[in-house]
Design a protein that fits this description.
heterodimer; A: 153 residues; mainly alpha; 5 helices; 0% strand; elongated; B: 121 residues; two-stranded antiparallel sheet; 7% strand
């Protein structure tokens, strides 16, 4: 029961993080000009998302780190017995990516909140892109692995 | 030198060093500690249950290394980060800033490569 609640909260925080990072990434890489839905989606001020992204990433990673204990004991053995090796491989990659992304957060925050004039804009864009890739990878992998076992199994 | 400049150098050095050290920890299996969640036990260093019991029985004590690898890399990166913070800015300015995003991408690719055995099972 505790694991299920934590997993749902972890998922909800991840959705918020995904939204914030996707907004910021698109606004950084392809700023919107038109007044269409997609144009407005990309016209947000990207720097304003930095604090939220850092806080949400840390919360999602901490919750994920706790849920991972339940996963290792209750879920992974079943996946191994069922031979879901690629899913476990994708999940391992997710853990590695999340750690590397977490270590980039201080630099990401500095680049957005304390930018320097001589600092290339592409550095901010690259860091945001890397974090967005990591969060999308983590979200989709977690979603697929959760779907394999099914809710409450 | 202001604290904001020192923190910037710390953040840049920490992020890049962590990416490299994480791959090293993963490749060499250098976990600062090993977690046995079923037994609620944490042991210092890398421990494999198959080394002390029959491999067929290792499922009784599943081990977790991810926390340990992350802690190893974080500890090492902290040293590099602090070094970066205390070094004169004149020195660090010569380092190409692009390493900050290029090294993590390379590290992520290395992690994928090291995970490939899962996909050959």
């Amino acid at each position: 029961m505790v694991a299920t609640i934590l997993l749902i909260v972890h998922g909800l925080v991840a959705v918020a993080l995904l939204g914030a990072l996707t907004h910021q990434t698109l606004a950084t890489w392809a700023p919107g000009r038109s007044g269409s839905f997609f144009g407005r989606f990309r016209r947000v001020p990207p720097a304003s998302f930095a604090n939220a992204v850092v806080i949400l990433y840390v919360i999602a990673a901490l919750l994920g780190g706790i849920v991972y204990l339940y996963f290792r004991v209750d879920i992974r053995p079943s996946l191994e017995r069922a031979g879901h090796w690629p899913a476990l491989g994708f999940f391992d990659i997710k853990e590695h990516f999340i750690s590397i992304g977490a270590a980039l957060l201080p630099a990401y925050w500095v680049c957005w909140r304390r930018p320097r004039t001589e600092e290339p804009y592409r550095m901010r864009a690259a860091l945001t892109g890397i974090l967005a890739f990591i969060v999308w990878w983590g979200f989709l992998t977690g979603h697929v692995v959760n779907n394999i076992m099914g809710f409450g199994s | 030198m202001t604290s904001s400049h020192a923190f910037r150098r710390f953040a840049f050095a920490y992020g890049t060093a962590f990416a490299v050290l994480y791959v090293v920890a993963l490749k060499l299996d250098l976990a600062l500690f090993t977690v046995y969640p079923k037994q609620s036990v944490v042991l210092l260093g890398t421990h494999h249950s198959r080394d002390v019991v029959d491999p067929a029985m290792s499922f009784l004590a599943p081990a977790m290394y991810w926390y340990g690898w992350t802690a190893s890399a974080a500890l090492g990166a902290l040293v590099f980060g602090l070094l970066g913070a205390v070094l004169p800015e004149l020195w660090t300015r010569r380092i190409w800033a692009g390493w900050l995003w290029l090294i993590p991408i390379a590290a992520m690719s290395a992690c994928v490569y090291l995970t490939m055995p899962w996909f050959r099972l």
